[in-house]
C-alpha cells in the first residue's frame, strides 16, 4: 500500500507568487480588453492570496511574512520594467499591500485567543 505524502507547506506561497509573476509579465498590449478597475482588483486579490498562503506556511504573522509581502509587492512592480507595454506603479504596490493587509486582518480576527486557527 502506498502512502500519500502531503506537499511541503511552502508550495502554496510559491504557487501564489508564481501566479503573480505570470500576471505581471503579460505584455501591456494584451491587457487592452481588461476593464478599468479589474487590474487593481487583480493586484489586491493576488496579494490577499499570497499573504494568506504565507501565514499558512509560517503559521504566524511575523516579520518574515511582512518582509516577504513588501518585497514581493515591490519586486512584482520591478519585473514590469522588463515587460513591453507595462509600467511599474507605486499605487499598485499600495494596492498589493492593501490586499495583503486585508488577509492579515481577517486571519488575525478569526484566530482564537491562543493563536490557533
Brief digest:
Helix content is 62%, strand content 0%. It has helices at 11-24, 38-58, 63-79, 90-110. The mean pLDDT is 83.
Question: Can you put this structure into words, describing what you see?
Answer:
Helix 1 runs antiparallel to helix 2. The chain is 62% helix and 0% strand. The relative contact order is 0.17. It is globular, with a radius of gyration of 16 Å. The protein has one domain (11-26, 35-108). The chain is an all-alpha fold and 117 residues long.
Q: What structural category characterises the helix and strand content?
A: mainly alpha
State the order of secondary-structure elements, H for helix, E for strand: HHHH
* First-to-last CA distance: 33 Å
Which overall shape is indicated by the principal axes computed on the Cα atoms?
globular
**How many domains make up the coordinates?**
1
Helix fraction, binned, reads 55-70%
Strand element count = 0
User: Mean of residue pLDDT?
Assistant: 83
Radius of gyration: 16 Å
Oligomer: single chain
Q: Please indicate the percent range of residues in DSSP E strands (runs of 2 or more).
A: under 5%
User: How many helices does DSSP assign?
Assistant: 4
- Summarize the biggest pleated sheet: none
> Low-confidence stretches at least 5 residues in length (pLDDT < 50)?
none
Amino acid at each position: 500500500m502506498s502512502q500519500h505524502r502531503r506537499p511541503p507547506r511552502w508550495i502554496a506561497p510559491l504557487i501564489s507568487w508564481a501566479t503573480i509573476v505570470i500576471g505581471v509579465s503579460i505584455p501591456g498590449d494584451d491587457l487592452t480588453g481588461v476593464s478599468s478597475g479589474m487590474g487593481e482588483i487583480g493586484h489586491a486579490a493576488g496579494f490577499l492570496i499570497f499573504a494568506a498562503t504565507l501565514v499558512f506556511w509560517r503559521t504566524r504573522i511575523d516579520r518574515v511574512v511582512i518582509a516577504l509581502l513588501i518585497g514581493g509587492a515591490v519586486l512584482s512592480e520591478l519585473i514590469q520594467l522588463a515587460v513591453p507595454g507595462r509600467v511599474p506603479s507605486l499605487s499598485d504596490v499600495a494596492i498589493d499591500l492593501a490586499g495583503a493587509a486585508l488577509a492579515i486582518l481577517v486571519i488575525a480576527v478569526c484566530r482564537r485567543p491562543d493563536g490557533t486557527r
